[in-house]
Amino acid sequence: MYTLFNAIHWNADPVIFEIGSFGLRYYALCFLAAFACSYVLMLKIFIREGKPQELLDQLSIYIFLGTLIGARLGHCLFYEFDYYIKHPLEMILPFRQVNGSWELTGFQGLASHGGAIGILIALLLFSRKTKTDFMWITDRLVIVIPLAGAFVRLGNFFNSEIIGLPAPEGLPWAVVFEKVDMIARHPAQLYEAICYVLIFIILWAMYQKNAKPKPGLLFGIFLILLFGTRFFIEFFKENQEAFEDNMKFNMGQLLSIPFMLGGLFLALRKTKETKK
Questions:
Q1: What is its EC number (predicted)?
Q2: Residues 207, 210, 212, 217: what is their CA dihedral angle, to the nearest 10 degrees?
Q3: β 8-10/184-185 pair status
Q4: Per residue in 14-52, pLDDT tens?
Q5: Does the pLDDT value for residue 237 go beyond 90?
Q6: Three-class SS of residue 134?
Q7: How far apart are CA 122 and CA 112, in angstroms?
Q8: Which of 36, 75, 133, 235 could bond 111 through an S-S bridge, CB–CB 3.0 to 4.6 Å?
Q9: Among 71, 43, 37, 41, which Cα is nearest to 57's?
Q10: How far apart are CA 200 and CA 157, in angstroms?
Q11: Do 240 and 251 meet the contact criterion of CB atoms below 8 Å apart?
């Protein structure tokens, strides 16, 4: 039997401080850090390729809204459809009706696959609005997205959410999320965060070596690596919703498959340049 004394005990308060009804959470800081670091790195890319900062500022607004709206709707539709179809206002409002009265809950529930779809839609709208080549901006943006994802998973760790399965006996980095239970588990959030950092390093190195890759190549490799990682790490996670317990592959894995297939197509396809 696993000895809990051999595991890392995690009982951090997800709220840093509170002023009245407002509370600053580590998750919110990680979310803001994700956008801040992404902006700085994208600015370096824009400067390198002679693009104006004003264009990046416009892009940042599109991406922020696309991420938030897509991730929220993705969670509501993919994971809690039965509830939110009966309470549609709660999809877009940070309130929940409890015992006939409305309570401030924030947006509890964001799905990364929904965020990915939201970002793609935002990029399509941005490229049309600014006459920017869709594949050009996508190939550059996906370089920094894995780093942003790592910050978000770190926020999940502070929240003691998206926890891993019980760890095998003797695993030295097993974590007991005391706010959940007293079981030593895989720190799946940290597994994912570390993998995302490695994906960022790979894509950044590829871009530094060749600033003008085949259109769609970086996007394709990103989809293969990131969603392939997501598919694999899901085997170490607890299911997010009860309906997934009877499924061979959970919702996160099923949603990852189309992204991986799309990545293979983009990475292997022949463009006009490669045909020449």
A1: 2.5.1.145
A2: -60
A3: unpaired
A4: 888 777 656 688 888 998 999 999 999 999 999 999 999
A5: yes
A6: helix
A7: 15
A8: 75
A9: 43
A10: 20
A11: yes
Higher pLDDT, 241 or 257: 257
Read off the tokens for 1: 């039997």
When pLDDT is cut at 50, 70 and 90, the band that residue 54 belongs to is very high
Structure tokens at 120: 């793609």
**Chain centroid to CA 116: how far?**
8
Looking at the DSSP bridge assignments, the partners of residue 42 are: none
Rounded to whole angstroms, the Cα distance separating 86 from 66 reads 24
Residue 153 is assigned to a ligand binding site = yes
The pairing of strands 8-10 and 175-177 is parallel
In the structure, what pLDDT confidence band is assigned to residue 1 with cuts at 50, 70 and 90? very low
Q: pLDDT band for 100, please (50, 70, 90 cuts).
A: low
CA-to-CA separations, 212 to 40, 45, 140, 202, 225, in angstroms, rounded: 20, 11, 10, 16, 20
The DSSP code for 237 is B
pLDDT of 176-228, one tens digit each? Answer: 999 999 999 999 999 999 999 999 999 999 999 987 888 999 999 999 999 99
Question: Which residue in this structure is represented by tokens 């894509």?
Answer: 203
Our CA angle for 6, 11, 13, nearest 5°, is 160
Alpha-carbon gap, residue 155 to 149, rounded angstroms: 10
Does the pLDDT of residue 111 top 60, yes or no?
yes
Tell how strand 101-104 and strand 175-177 pair up. unpaired
For residues 1 and 142, give the distance between their C-alpha atoms in angstroms, rounded to a whole number.
Answer: 43
